[in-house]
Every structure is written in C-alpha cells, then in structure tokens.
Design a protein that fits this description.
Largest sheet: 2 strands, antiparallel
Number of strands: 6
Distance between the termini: 9 Å
Strand content: 5-15%
Helix content: 40-55%
Order of helices and strands: EHEEEHHHHHEEH
Number of helices: 7
Shape: globular
Length: 184
C-alpha cells in the first residue's frame, strides 16, 4: 500500500511542461493540433472559455518540452491524424485508448490554459479562470496522460530517491513506488 501522495508535486507552473513538468526545452503545444485546425477550418475561429473570453484556436497553446511535444504527443497526434485522414473505419480501428488519450489531452490542455489566464484582467486579484485546486483535481487524468507514449516523469514527483537518472518511465515509477511503499 502506497502511503504517500503521488500528486502533491504536480508541476503547475507557467514555465514548466504541462505533461512531464520539466523546465528545459520548453516549446508551445497547440491544444488542438494544427492538422485539426487547418482540416476543420478552426485556425481563425474562436473558442469560448469558462469566463466568457473568446480565444482563437491557434492561440490556445500550453507549455510543453521538446521531447513531450515532438515525440510523445507527436506519436499520438500522428496516429489520430492518419486515421482521421483515412476515414471513419480507420478511426474505429484505433480503439478506445488512443482516442481517449487524444480527447483527454485536449480537455486537460484547455483546463491548463484557463489556469494560466486571469478570470478578469481588470481585477488580477480575482485569480485565474480555473483555480489551481481544480487543475490538481484532475491529477489522475494527468498521470494517465503521462503514460500516453511512455512519457517520463520526475522521480521527485513520486518522492522516490533516484541515483542514476533524472527521469523514469511511468512503468518504472510505479514499480519503484510499489517497492518503496512495501519497505515502509
């Protein structure tokens, strides 16, 4: 039985990758992928955020490190994009998991963006559109997203001492957390 809070160090910082939490090599991930925006004429369309603010789809971006953006999420986006391009039957053959991960990335990405925007720019003290505690309430979804393509998570996030590397895969983290918990 794991007695520690695995989600207490979830990185919700503007300059951290939304997926793995690193602060290095940060790029901007389009929440709705460019292929989708162009293919469905969304690039100049606007999405209504929870506070009523209109934001162009092309500006709905969140911080993401080069690895998560180009490799981990790239695999998922390519898989879905290729299936969509081939039609309904190909999308159906993907199965539930990739489609769920893809939809979850969009959902969590919107929440993450709304966490970074003020509810009312005239009253900064009102806080963000989505409070941090709401974003944190989706930590299980966030952890599931980290496993989307073998994404790595920081050992510090799991409170696991690690001597030889700075990150581990989700599977390695679970095994290590289980071993650590069984020792306590």
């Amino acid at each position: 039985m794991i007695k520690q809070d695995l989600f207490s160090d979830l990185q919700v910082q503007e300059d951290a990758c939304f997926l793995c939490g690193t602060h290095s090599g940060i790029t901007q991930e389009h929440v709705f992928a460019k292929w989708m925006q162009h293919g469905y004429n969304l690039w100049d369309k606007r999405l209504t955020l929870l506070n009523g603010t209109l934001l162009q789809y092309r500006n709905l971006k969140i911080p993401c490190c080069c690895h998560c953006n180009g490799v981990e999420l790239g695999r998922l986006e390519n898989l879905v994009s290729n299936a969509v391009g081939q039609g309904y039957e190909s999308v159906k053959q993907l199965g539930d998991r990739p489609l769920y991960l893809w939809a979850a990335k969009i959902f969590y990405g919107i929440l993450r963006k709304e966490w970074s925007l003020l509810r009312d720019r005239r009253q900064p003290e009102a806080g963000p559109i989505v409070p941090e505690e709401v974003l944190r309430s989706f930590s299980n979804l966030h952890l599931f997203l980290q496993g989307s393509g073998g994404a790595t998570i920081s050992p510090a996030r799991l409170h696991i001492p690690c001597c030889s590397s700075t990150s581990m895969t989700l599977a390695e983290s679970i095994v290590s957390a289980s071993a650590t918990a069984s020792l306590t």
